[in-house]
Write a structure and sequence with these properties.
Length: 331
Amino acid sequence: MTIDATARAHPNMALVKYWGKRDEQIMLPSTGSLSMTLDEFPTTTTVQLREDHGPDVLELNGAVAQGEPLRRVTRFLDLVRERAGSEARAVVRSRNEVPTGAGLASSASGFAALATAASAVYELPQDTRSLSRLARRGSGSACRSIIDRMAVWHAGEDDATSFAEQIEAPELAMVVVVVDAGGKKVSSREAMRLTAATSPFAAAWRASTARTLEEMLAACREGDVERIGELAETNALRMHAVIQSTVPSVRYLRGASVGVFDAIEQLRADGLQAWGTADAGPNVVAITRPADAAAVADALAGHGEVRVVRPGPGARLVDERVAPVSTGEVR
Ligand code: 2P0
């Protein structure tokens, strides 16, 4: 009998953003979205069943975690146990390799790795679609981190039809520009609620994103990098516009972030093709062709720490284990 399993997953960066839920209970998004799974910053998670009937335990980056992170993992494992017909509690050991303060969210890689490892130990279905549906319940964007390279998340009509799957797309690279390593004051989940409740532009955002997704899928099929970049930049700026239009206003972009969008526009005017995007935080990511990535990184280095990332693997089981806190160093 398997009593522990370990999985590794990477964050993803959306080219068409998920911003809003149709059903928060089962995590149905109000529109579909599309992303690139990154080849850097993995989360590795070991799930070990407890034999002593103690409570769920979460060890995160070498320290025992309590409070909301533990509650969120326990709620997720409760869903897993319900489906598996099991009452076994677990020790979850998780390690993120995001450099300190890189500003990249780890909930997508975290719940993708947890869904994959938990499905193995609790003996739930482990096909890609089942894992994507399950990861979605932990954090919406996690359903995309199950998938290799490029993923579309179908909004779906119900739990069974809301999942991510791989799409063909041209080779891309991204340059992550860390302008501010601080945490955010308002979580994505909270700001999504605020957007739905208070923004006069929420319906327009949903309608435009649904159209953009169709156009993005066509641009990916056609291998049209320029169109992909243009659509992604517009979609990201529209997302930030709708977020800023909430009451009270939430502003994730800082002056320095806007400066990076300006610099990217200037690069294009100078003949180097790159397009900006940004998630629910101040850091900006330039989308470009692999051949141009080093030049874009050089050009943007004055705005913050830069990292070039490429398409990466979806979540998968690995042989190593994340070591327990008590043994000292967490590998
Ligand atoms: C995305 N973001 O598509 C968008 C763009 C942030 C900005 O998905 O409430 O952590 O757990 O489903 O997935 C971040 O939100 O939110 C996100 P929940 P999640 O990547």
